[in-house]
Amino acid sequence: MSNADLRGNRPLSPHLQIYKPILTMVMSILHRITGAALYFGTILLAWWLIAAAAGPTYFDFVNEIYGSILGRLILFGFTWALVHHMLGGLRHFVWDMGAGFGKDAREWLAKATIVGSVSLTLILWIIGYIVR
Prior knowledge:
By secondary structure, this protein is mainly alpha-helical. 80% of the residues lie in helices and 0% in strands. α2 packs antiparallel against α3 (56-67) and α4 packs antiparallel against α5.
């Protein structure tokens, strides 16, 4: 005979509430979040390109929005998400090549991704302000 209550008695799969967060787990979640944020940033980039094609008046309007404090903060976040996601992809590429699976190597790659993404974002923005 079948037991109708089988689903109610099955153990639940462990999730974020049970596992102790480790750096590589946080980096995996952050990689997914930055990937999703890049969709929003791509819409902003498309809007800017459409404004450039629409004419100088609309282009100036969009540039004024992007030049505001809030606009620059959003663009800074987009830049960081782009750089962080790229470095996370390179970290995964290293793993795809069969390297970096040791505990120390995983931790080093995760820390290098964080430091590298923040550093490269700051460098890009400093260069942008100098060139501007």
